[in-house]
């Protein structure tokens, strides 16, 4: 993945997660940690929330990552698609370590850790020129988390 995209994802903490079941879309905002080595966004949410219920039924998700800015020339943001997933084994340990290092206050909070395997990322970076886009696609062979 382009280092500008990775740097941006790592510099932020909040994403909008979008799910859909039976043509009913839904969005939620979640704090996340990024595992660059596995290209995963890790977040915590309760199993009974609508976005988790939806994602368990349809693991195709999308979302955005954007900071709060008011100057159009400094706008940067990410739009992504990916596969929702649960964690097992050593990846579970890795996800917990990354997420709770970033958000230790979340440890006693209700919920489980979930992941999004990134498959497509489009970054808009107006600091490189108005409307400049950097696009990344996962190789077709990257489906080991399905």
Give an overview of the whole structure.
The chain is 21% helix and 42% strand. It has one domain (3-137): Electron Transport, Fmn-binding Protein, Chain A (Pnp Oxidase, Chain A, Roll). A hairpin with a 2-residue loop joins strand 1 and strand 2. The model has no long low-confidence stretch (mean pLDDT 92). It has helices at residues 3-11, 50-57, 89-102; strands at residues 14-21, 24-35, 40-45, 60-65, 76-85, 112-125, 133-137.
- The helix-and-strand class reads alpha+beta
Number of distinct helices: 3
Tell me the β content.
35-45%
Q: What is the H/E string?
A: HEEEHEEHEE
Question: Helicity, in percent?
Answer: 10-25%
CATH class annotation: Mainly Beta
CATH topology: Pnp Oxidase, Chain A
Give the topology, please:
Elements: H1 3-11, E1 14-21, E2 24-35, E3 40-45, H2 50-57, E4 60-65, E5 76-85, H3 89-102, E6 112-125, E7 133-137
Antiparallel strand pairs: 1-2, 1-4, 2-3, 3-6, 4-5, 5-6, 6-7
List its traits.
single chain; 146 residues; Pnp Oxidase, Chain A; six-stranded antiparallel beta barrel; 3 helices; 7 strands; globular
What does this entry show, briefly?
This protein is α+β, with helices and mostly antiparallel strands and 146 residues long. It is built from 3 helices and 7 strands.
């Amino acid at each position: 993945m382009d280092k500008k995209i990775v740097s941006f994802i790592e510099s932020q903490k909040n994403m909008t997660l979008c799910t859909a079941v039976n043509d009913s879309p839904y969005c939620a905002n979640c704090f996340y940690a990024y595992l660059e080595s596995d290209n995963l966004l890790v977040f915590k949410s309760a199993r009974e929330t609508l976005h988790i219920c939806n994602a368990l039924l349809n693991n195709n998700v999308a979302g955005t990552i954007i900071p709060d800015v008011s100057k159009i020339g400094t706008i940067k943001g990410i739009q992504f698609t990916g596969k929702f997933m649960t964690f097992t084994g050593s990846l579970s340990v890795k996800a917990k370590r990354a997420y709770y290092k970033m958000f230790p206050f979340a440890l006693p909070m209700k919920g489980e850790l979930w992941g999004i395997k990134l498959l497509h990322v489009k970054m808009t970076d107006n600091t490189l020129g108005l409307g400049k886009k950097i696009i990344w696609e996962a190789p077709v062979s990257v489906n080991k988390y399905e």
